[in-house]
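Shipment paperwork, digital attachment
Item: protein structure file
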Amino acid sequence: MNHFDLVEGEGGGELYCEGVPLSRIAEAVGTPVYVYSTATLERHYTVLRDALVGAGLKDPLIAYAVKANSNVAVLRTLGNLGAGADTVSEGEIRRALAAGIPGERIVFSGVGKTEGEIAFALAHGVAEINVEAEPELHLVNRVAQRLGTRAEVAIRVNPDVEAGGHAKISTGKADNKFGVSLSEAERLYANAANMAGVRPVGVACHIGSQITDLAPMEAAFGKMRGLVERIRKEGLTVERLDLGGGLGVPYFNQPTPPTPADYAAMIGRVTQGLDIRFAFEPGRMIAANAGVLLARVILVHERPEGRRFLVIDAAMNDLLRPAMYDAYHDIRPVKPRPGEPLPYDVVGPICETGDTFTRDRVLPPLEAGDLVAFMTAGAYGAAMSSEYNSRLLVPEVLVKGDQFAVVRPRPTYDDMLAREAPAPWL
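Attachment content:
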């Protein structure tokens, strides 16, 4: 569910975000621009939280995956509801802290943590560091001892279960770079228990993103339960089980994914009687349908052989997912025109053939100056944006009711150029 609806008025229908017409935002901020709905962010978090608690998972830590949408206003919106943060860099930890999320609700993941990042995480009291390799475990131990502290760690396991909507977002197979094998995990956990600088508190897994079938998750979670039970049989304490994220969202061209209630019920069934504290790292399922990318049509180019190009002012640097993952986004006119729908190739201005959002997409008739909204763009949209082709970074707007605020302004060209300086000999 989202809060982007077509509202009928005297001049016809118009797409709104909550109580704000998208055309008002375009007029005030310009295009392209990301627009986020507070009501959708809040609803998706609370629906997941209530489902987990309802399934008997007491006091779960829902550590929102910052990489999905790292805007500080988005993080603060979720943090105010009790969300934590799943982070993969010092920068993401800093963003979570800036949003008011305390260290005890922050998880630090990722396969390439540097010594400086580990020290920063420990200095700010993160809840746990998810260790993804044996050399990393020794590095965390050394850094913690140097700082005179003891790091709480979870061993991230790669359960060798294939899942995810695209090969590039599948993270749970044996040939993926993430985590340690099940055969390594027990030994590393036992070793960690004997280290002066670390205290093993749990195990973790995350098998992929945009998963629309609960079966691979159930298989992975069953393996994780077995791991917890084996470690406990060795006389070691396992306090936490981090089951990651990955539950898919509807991109309109895919089967409807399982509901949070179905997801929670499956977890409750697989882990019944385990007596452990759970952590989760959802990102896309909270943020995706809470945002749209608003763009304006520059021109319609019709070729004699029949191709019709809809050239818009958004490009692959603003929304990379279609070029990188062949991802689908529903495209809706902000003010639909009457008339017969037509097939369009929707493209941006960047000098790459890959700057193509979709081909032969049947849309209502569109003309230069019309506004269009790319739906389900709140996750991995602005967070992956860049200044490729020296295009200005896309701004972000947060809506609440009938109010909106720019939460990341569009820089000026002077801002962009001021970050660079000529070498002394130039």
